[in-house]
């Protein structure tokens, strides 16, 4: 477990993530992370977005459905 301290940043409150947490998350300055609710009233910080994953899955399904059309258009 990594303890994080809340810090005043302008009119907001922020958390500074130590290097080891950034490495574990696979993120760096400027990347987006997501704070999501998980069962039991807890929250999870991750670089994974369920919404983006769903959109990618829908896009892959669409591409599979029209694979022949895309190949013909690519010629």
3D structure, described in words:
- By secondary structure, the chain is α+β, with helices and mostly antiparallel strands.
- The chain has 3 helices and 4 strands.
- The protein has a two-stranded antiparallel ribbon with strand order 1-2.
- Strand 1 (about 5-10) and strand 2 (about 10-15) form a beta hairpin.
- The chain starts with 5 loop residues before the first strand and ends with a helix.
Radius of gyration: 19 Å
Q: Give the neighbour order of strands across the main sheet.
A: 1-2
Overall 3D shape: elongated
Query: What helical percentage do the residues reach?
Result: 40-55%
Mean pLDDT: 90
Q: Beta-strand percentage? A: 15-25%
Number of strands: 4
Largest sheet: 2 strands, antiparallel
Helix/strand/pairing category: alpha+beta
Q: What's the multimeric state?
A: single chain
Summarize the structure.
The protein has three helices and four strands, in the order ββαββαα. It is α+β, with helices and mostly antiparallel strands and 75 residues long. The strands form two sheets. A two-stranded antiparallel ribbon has the order 1-2. A two-stranded antiparallel sheet has the order 3-4.
